[in-house]
Amino acid sequence: MVKKKKNIGNIIILIVIIIIIAILIYSVVSFKKSVGEKGENFVICDKENNCLIAMHIHTEVDIKVCGKEIKIPLEAGDKTGTHTHKERNLLHFEERLKYDNKTQTIIETEPITLKNFFNHKDVKIIFNNTCIADKCNGDLCNGKERILYFRVNDKQNHEFENYVWKDGDKIKIIFDQPFPEQ
Q1: Is a pLDDT exceeding 50 seen at residue 171?
Q2: Which of 11, 15, 23, 61 has its CA 20 to 30 A from that of 52?
């Protein structure tokens, strides 16, 4: 009888430990989902209403040339501007920019343009409205003329290298689209 009570006690302790571990795992996963890679921004203004926005934002960039993925270098870019860390093709920005508090717009957008990142000495990937990497409009993919296509959040965009990216954007740069019929 004593042995049976001891076994029941051990089982209860084991169940409590498993429940505590499950709660801890759930809490960590929930916290990471809620904070994870979400952007964090706040505005600071002085007495003259000169404002800065402190930003911590991220965007995904998918680059395909003739069906092959181009990977953005890791730990590349200006650490005080747009850069990457260990996550593949995820751009980061953690800095302050001039901000108009009345219109709620960023005044100084150059650091968060795609051009600013792609032109950095650590990245060196050609990107403009006609070219990505070593392919330009009219070049061949599998024997066929192709053009560059730029999409942001599944919508065609014509800003290309001048695009000012925002937190959570999903950017696709694709060189494999048919050349338009004339």
Answers
A1: yes
A2: 61
